[in-house]
Amino acid sequence: MPPFVDVSDVTLTYGGTASGTLALEHTTLQIQKGEFAAVVGPSGCGKSTLLKLVSGLQLPSHGGVIVNGHEVSRPLSIVGMAFQNPIMLPWRTTLDNVLLPLEIVEPHASRFRTRRAEYEAQARELLKIVGLDGFADHYPWQLSGGMQQRASLCRSLIHEPELLLLDEPFGALDAFTREELWVVLQQLWERHKFTVILVTHDLTESVFLADTVHVSSKRPGRIVASQKVDLSRPRDIYAAEFVSLVRALKSEIVEVRAA
Amino acid sequence: MNARLEKTMPWLFVLGSVLVWELACIAFRIPSFVLPRPSLVAMALYERFGPIIDNSWMTLVRTLFGFAIAVVLGALLGIAIGSSRLIYRGLYPVLIGFNSIPKVAVVPVFVIWFGIGTIPAVLTAFLVSFFPIAVNVATGLATIEPELLDVMRSLGATKRKILIKVGLPRAMPYFFASLKVAITLAFVGTIISETVAANKGIGYLMMAATSNFDTPLVFAGLIVIAAMGIAMYAIFAIVEQRMTFWAKRGDGIMA
Question: Nearest-CA residue of chain A relative to B155?
C-alpha cells in the first residue's frame, strides 16, 4: 500500500533559491494512513516548514509531496491544524470557534445554516470528550491556556479531517495539563483513526503518542533517523522500556546537534 | 468611596479651574475683551442662547454629515489597504502626503468649487476625519496572526471569506476606537471651514463675535464646541463598549 503522506526528496528555500534561507534539504518522509507520526528535532530545524509543505500552504523548491495519492499543489482541505498558540477568535464563543471550519469547508459550508443544530450537537460532543462541557458558551478569553488548547484541538477536528497536523500544540502548557492532553489526543485518535503528524521538541511526548518518531537534523532540516515505537497503549512514561527509548532518541538528537 | 471620588473628579477639576479663572480675572483686573470671566461667558451663553443653539445645530449637522462620509469611505479604504499589499504600497504614501496638508489650506479650493457654506464644511470635516479610520481599519486587518491565516487557508477559505470571518470582526475594535478620535476631528474640520467660509455655524458666529470684540461670546462658542465634542465622544465610547466588549478582556473568570 502506498503511503498516505509521501514527502520525497524535498528541498525548500525561503526567499529565492540563490540567496534565501535553506529550511529543508533532501527531506524524505513516509507516513501510512492512520499512523501517528512525530517529528522531533532541535528548534529552528524546519519542522513547522515540513507541516506547511504537507498541508500545501507552502510549495517545495525541489521534490514533491504526495498526500492521499495526489501531488500537493495548493492548500488541502482534508487537513486540520493546531499550533502552540491556540489562536481562538475572541469575538466568538468557544462553541462558535469550534464550528468555524464547518462554515468554510465544503460540503458543510453551504448547508451550515440549515443543519446548524446538528453541527452544534457534534461540536458539543467533541467539547465534552476533551473535558470542556459547560464551557461551550464561554468566550475563549474566559478560559485558561490549557482549556483554550483543548478547544483548539476540537476546532482542528470538527470537520473530520483525514490528516491532523500539530505544531507543538502542547508546548506552552504546564506539565500536568500537557500530560492530560496527551491522553485526550490519544483517545480522539483511537476513536477516529485519522493520520497525525505531530511536530514537537518534547521526546517524552513523541514516544508517548507516536507510532513512529522521526528525528530531524538542525537547519537545513532533514530526517536523519526514524524509530518505531512498539509499546502498547496507553503507555507508561515511567516504564523501563519507555525511558530507555526516550534516552536512545535523546542521544540521537545530541549527536545531530553536535554534527 | 474611591470609585465615587473618581466619578466626581472631572467635575471637581472643571469647577476648580473655573474658580481659578474667575478669581484670576478679578485679581489681575484682566479686561473682558482679552479674557472674559467665566460668569460673563455664562451670561453671554444665556443671553444669546437662541443664536448659539441655531448655529451649533448647523455645525453639528455638517459635522455628522462629513463624519458619516468619512466612516464609509475611511472604512472601505482601510479594508482595501489592509487586505491588499499592492493597494497598500500604492496608496499609503499618497494618503500620508495628503494627511500632512493642513486642511485649512484646502478650504479656499472648496470655496472656488462649491461656494461658501455647508459643502466646504462637510468636505473639510470628512477630509480631517477619514484618515484615522482608514489607518485603524487597515491596521486591524494587517495584524491578523499568521497562524490563523494558515488555519483559514488550509481549510480552503477564499480571501473574501477570510475577510468576512476573521478580518472584519478583528478590525472592529480598531474601527470603533478610531471613531472616537474621528468625530472630534470632524468638529475641528467643520469649524475651520466655518471660520473661513460660511455665514452660519458656530465657527462663523465666533468669527463674527471676534470682529465685534465680543470676547465673551467667542468663549461661549468655544465652550459649546467642547461640550458637543465631549458628548459625541461619549456616545461613540459607549457604542465601542457595546460592540467590542470582547476586546476589553477583563480578568478571565476561569483563569
Answer: A77
